[in-house]
TrEMBL record, chain A:
<protein>
    <submittedName>
        <fullName>Acyl carrier protein</fullName>
    </submittedName>
</protein>
<dbReference type="Pfam" id="PF00550">
    <property type="entry name" value="PP-binding"/>
</dbReference>
<dbReference type="InterPro" id="IPR036736">
    <property type="entry name" value="ACP-like_sf"/>
</dbReference>
<dbReference type="InterPro" id="IPR009081">
    <property type="entry name" value="PP-bd_ACP"/>
</dbReference>
<keyword id="KW-0596">Phosphopantetheine</keyword>
<dbReference type="InterPro" id="IPR006162">
    <property type="entry name" value="Ppantetheine_attach_site"/>
</dbReference>
<feature type="domain" description="Carrier">
    <location>
        <begin position="1"/>
        <end position="75"/>
    </location>
</feature>
<keyword id="KW-0597">Phosphoprotein</keyword>
UniProtKB/TrEMBL annotation, chain B:
<keyword id="KW-0808">Transferase</keyword>
<dbReference type="InterPro" id="IPR013747">
    <property type="entry name" value="ACP_syn_III_C"/>
</dbReference>
<dbReference type="InterPro" id="IPR004655">
    <property type="entry name" value="FabH"/>
</dbReference>
<dbReference type="GO" id="GO:0044550">
    <property type="term" value="P:secondary metabolite biosynthetic process"/>
</dbReference>
<keyword id="KW-0012">Acyltransferase</keyword>
<keyword id="KW-0275">Fatty acid biosynthesis</keyword>
<feature type="active site">
    <location>
        <position position="255"/>
    </location>
</feature>
<keyword id="KW-0511">Multifunctional enzyme</keyword>
<feature type="active site">
    <location>
        <position position="285"/>
    </location>
</feature>
């Protein structure tokens, strides 16, 4: 399992952003991510959990919950 | 015996182009360019100044820095040669008064200076040359389409040179072991399609190439992902090969293509961001010139100090990449300005 809190920790550590009050249905764009940030997030998740998010899959991810569900699915 | 850095010199053209200047002709903005690349301005050639002019000035300053005239080989790393044939280096050597010395070019795009350092080290340590003048010189903006907003804001021009001679492994300036690599399967992701033998003027069907084919094209996403991945892996290999740890490094001297690539590589290496050297805000991506321009900027402003351990790493078209570790020497440095 991969939780929303784990994702928030990665975002806060990697991007030095405060996302503590952000909900799962918030979009990555709304917290200030651009296309490069999404690549960096994928890289950070790969570094910590060994899960690689493909370019095609990344295009279908828009919210924090989308990321959580994707990583959880891969881990299970 | 090992190869050591004896001198450094750089040069930029006088013309400065800001993001606001670029935004006047392209659908982009200062904020967009800065946020995604870290670039604020860049030096660009205009008028008569070309690659060789920059190479000569940088080379002369490096020779003065090294306080020697006993150069017996000149290597120019460039992605923007004066002509397809011959190489730039023989003419540069001639203009520097280095009559009859060995001189040739190497082409390895943004990794060219690191490949050049490895080549120079090999020549010096094998005894084929005593002292090599290595120059990375680019007027690459002449090969970038002014109407392409994905590439035109990124690049700048300039030259940097290093004198590499014989020394001892424990001496300041010692150049360590290298990790070098390449992956030609992704060459189309960052390339200039036309102008070479494959598509000289017309393609295989006799059609004239589209004008964009004569300029650089880039798949930014593929380049970004591979740059991060390969610079990280190559850096780790180089650090291990030189019996060091990431914690022992004082600076990461990375090729200045994009500040966010450098920050991500540092994150992957667990290297504190304060150890990431960067002058990309002032230069943009100057390809083979970026490593020596960064070294000179930091040394001239006393941010680089003798004895500090530097990780040098670069990635570029090819794809090709390389990394090494250097102990920074006590060098005389000069300003980078044209005059």
């Amino acid at each position: 399992m991969f939780s929303l809190n784990e994702l928030k920790t990665i975002i806060e550590t990697r991007f030095k952003m405060d996302v503590s009050t952000t909900s799962g249905d918030t979009s990555l764009e709304d917290i200030g991510f651009d296309s490069l940030s999404q690549l960096d997030l994928a890289q950070a998740i790969h570094k910590q959990h060994g899960i690689k998010i493909s370019d095609d899959d990344m295009e279908s991810i828009s919210t924090l919950d989308d990321v959580v569900n994707y990583v959880s699915g891969k881990l299970s | 015996m090992t190869a050591v850095i004896r001198g450094i010199g750089v040069c930029v053209p006088p013309n400065i182009v800001t993001n606001d200047d670029i935004s006047k002709t392209l659908d982009t903005s200062d904020l967009w360019i800065r946020e995604r690349t870290g670039i604020e301005r860049r030096y660009m050639v205009d008028g008569e100044i070309s690659t060789m002019d920059l190479a000569i000035k940088a080379g002369l300053r490096a020779i003065e820095s090294a306080q020697t005239n006993k150069i017996d080989m000149v290597i120019v790393a460039t992605t923007s040669p004066e002509r397809l044939c011959p190489a730039v280096a023989p003419e540069v050597a001639d203009k520097l008064g280095l009559k009859g010395v060995a001189a040739y070019d190497i082409t390895s795009a943004c990794a060219g200076f690191v490949y050049g350092m490895a080549t120079a080290k090999g020549f010096v340590e094998s005894g084929i040359a005593d002292t090599v003048l290595l120059i990375g010189a680019e007027a690459f903006t002449k090969f970038v389409n002014k109407d392409d907003r994905t590439t035109w804001p990124i690049f700048g021009d300039g030259a940097g040179a290093m004198v590499i001679g014989k020394g001892e492994p424990d001496e300041l300036g010692a150049i360590g072991q290298f990790d070098l690599g390449a992956d030609g399967s992704l060459s189309d992701a960052l390339c200039t399609h036309a102008g070479g033998a494959r598509q000289r003027v017309k393609d295989s069907l006799g059609q004239h190439a589209q004008s964009q084919a004569y300029y650089l094209s880039m798949n930014g996403r593929v380049v970004y992902e591979n740059a991060v991945s390969q610079m990280t892996q190559s850096s780790l290999k180089a650090v291990r090969q030189n019996d060091l740890t990431i914690e022992e490094l004082d600076w990461m001297i990375g090729h200045q293509a994009n500040i966010r690539i450098l920050q991500t590589v540092a994150y992957e290496l667990d290297l504190p961001e304060c150890k990431v050297a960067s002058n990309i805000a002032d230069h943009g991506n100057t390809l083979t010139a970026s490593i020596p321009l960064l070294l000179n900027d930091y040394a001239h402003s006393n941010q680089l100090k003798p004895g500090q351990k530097l990780l040098i790493t670069a990635f570029g078209a090819g794809f090709s990449w390389g990394s090494t570790v250097v102990t920074w020497p006590d060098l005389r440095t000069y300003p980078k300005e044209w005059n």
